[in-house]
Task: structure prediction
Amino acid sequence: MSNILIEANNISKIYDQDIFLKRGKNIYALNNVNFQLQKGDFICIMGPSGSGKSTLLNCLSTLDQPSHGDIQIFNQYISQMHKNDLCEFRYQKLGFVFQNHNLIPYLSIYDNIAAPIILGNQKSQDIENRIKILAKDLEIEGILDKFPHECSGGEYQRTAIARALVNEPEILFCDEPTGNLDSKNSHKLLKILSHLNQRDTTIVLVTHDPMIASYGKTMMYLYDGGIKSVVQRNQATQREFLDQINQVVHQDTLLYEFDQTSPLQSTNPAPTTEKIKVDNQDKAFISRQTVYMVLDGFKSDENILKNSTPLYIHGTHISYQNVHHDDIEFDFKDIQEIRMDLTAQFVIFGIYSEYVFHILLDCVSPQGTYKLKVKNKDDFIHIIDYFHQNHVKVIDPRHIEDAYHQYPDDYSRQKYYKRTHKDLLKKK
Result:
């Protein structure tokens, strides 16, 4: 069974301030982001204000939906879920901790913690037992009868964590949970989160503070809506991890602020920021990557390309980035066979909705299988011709190549797929 809990492929979030006149004033809060969360991860998302940290967290946690791209959570596409199912899903699987606590002022601490679980019609004794265990773990058993205004900031936030954990979620989302706390309470809170992570709670946390991020296992740095650096802790100590994070934060702030034309630029060039890669021999085969295939000598669809991960084909050399932002390269001469298949996704376009079909490619080599989901449309026929020119065996049980010859335009081809591949459709 896969350990991947959340997988985001090429997601973008656009805030359109000119929706009626359409003068191109779209603001990208996220731009073509790939993300993967595995069971047991503790990922800290950092970046300057406006970099898209909270927007990414909201999209991953189902509180918001991306404008483009796909998010799968527990192997389900968020865009395909009915709003009632989505609410039930959040209740059963997800927990949320916010900077401003969002406690209900006229309820006691006990009732604030119990509020989510009461909705599930749990027995009173079960609720009481679970709250007492959480209160003891979080050291708030002495304030359960108090009201929020009678508690300190640290007690506030520990109450918010207890409320988030009372349903025993598999993933805990934290948006600046230490923003209103002093240093002592911040570190106390992070030790609690680290302890929860050691007990198999998966955590995604947004923070501005490198020291807070050093409690995690992975630091992901955002800038202008995109992921610029990913640092894995691996076997490093917390101090060593903090030094790595500080290096990335320093470079990805100062070096972006002062370009080469700035009078403040030093005459000595600063070192470039290098991503610290995941140490994984099978990193090319960890997941299926959504790509737009760019073939030398043929025009690309720029509208699709700017919201996609490009896969470049230069002769027989293939290169792209996986969801961990590792550079993947291989020679097409090593490919033994290619298996083509289709996948259907239910997509909502404003007041309209429709199934959209994409091609799945499995490129089988002696090292492993490169799994791709292809966003090319009419130009994919050139990719098929490229396979044949290189004398690679193509397994095509759904007769995708025939569909391209029979229906050269994407609109007709999508209608054809809908008629002939009803086994891929799920009624919504």
Notes: Confidence is low (pLDDT under 50) at residues 258-281. The CA atoms of residues 154 and 185 lie 6 Å apart. The chain has two domains: 4-257, 283-424.
